[in-house]
Design a protein that fits this description.
Layout lengths: L1 E10 L2 E11 L4 E5 L6 H8 L7 E6 L2 E2 L5 H8 L2 E4 L11 H12 L4 H14 L15 H12 L6 E5 L7 H17 L3 E5 L3 H7 L2 E6 L2 E6 L10 H7 L3 H4 L5
Helix pairs in contact: 3-4, 3-5, 4-5, 5-6
Length: 249
């Protein structure tokens, strides 16, 4: 479990996150939703250590990440997999080289062991015979799957996904949602997904956090979100045409 406890974050004296506390549950898809500028990305960057919090703590299975120095944090960072928006693959590297990257950085495995792991991860995301292709030769959905393969290369305990369905058609989005669900259970991971996609929320939303103006405004699941007595949440949820059909249920 990842426990965020009373964190605050400001930039140039302007508060962005206000006393946020959240528990992200293991073996569940934990969703962070909210409007653009609400603080979702800042929160996520604080959790993985790209931003330092002003106060509060972030614990990874009881280990206080905020009190660790750079060297101590490296141990936890090796346990984190990240799927970036758009995949964030290195354009100059092949698919195989992209997935090798974290393995070569963080392990002392042999070349044969690394290649075996690359092929295993590609097979796990249902991609065969793409090792030597470059990102420019892949479809959007394939790029996301390669991104997932790279994210699980180190067999992580924690998986962070930033808008995994951004730019994908509905059918491919379902494939990616299902894949994230499968590997979360398979690897016993704590998975955190930042998303605007209400289809994903309704499919995978066991544990949902709605961020509003830098505050933890609502927590619940995909069933409770439809009945929530929360104006700001309702305004966000039902702004989506996809969700209009649920409004009067």
């Amino acid at each position: 479990m990842i426990a965020v406890k009373n964190i605050n974050k400001s930039f140039s004296g302007v508060p962005v996150l206000h006393d946020i506390s959240i528990s992200f549950i293991r073996k569940e898809i934990n969703l962070i939703i909210g409007a653009s500028g609400s603080g979702k990305s800042v929160l996520t960057k604080c959790i993985v250590g790209l931003h330092e919090v002003d106060s509060g703590s972030i614990e990874y299975d009881g280990r206080d990440f905020t009190k660790m120095n750079f060297k101590e944090r490296k141990g936890i960072r090796k346990e984190i997999g990240m799927l970036f928006q758009g995949g964030a693959l290195f354009d100059s590297l092949t698919v195989e080289e992209n997935i090798k990257f974290p393995l070569e950085m963080y392990t002392s495995h042999s070349k044969e062991e690394i290649l075996d792991r690359v092929n295993f991860c590609l097979k796990r995301v249902n991609l065969d015979n793409v090792n030597k292709l470059y990102p420019a030769e892949l479809s959007g959905g394939m790029k996301k799957r390669v991104g997932i393969a790279r994210a699980i290369a180190l067999n992580p305990k924690y998986l962070f996904c930033d808008e995994p369905n951004s730019g994908l058609d509905p059918q491919t989005s379902i494939v990616i949602d299902n894949l994230i669900q499968e590997i979360t259970l398979e690897y016993d991971m704590t998975t955190i997904v930042v998303t605007h996609d209400m289809n994903s929320v309704m499919e995978t939303g066991d544990n949902i956090t709605f961020i509003y103006n830098g505050r933890n405004w609502w927590n619940g699941n995909k069933h409770e979100i439809l009945k929530a007595d929360n104006k700001e949440l309702n305004d966000f949820v039902y702004a989506s045409k996809i969700m209009q059909k649920f409004k009067n249920l």
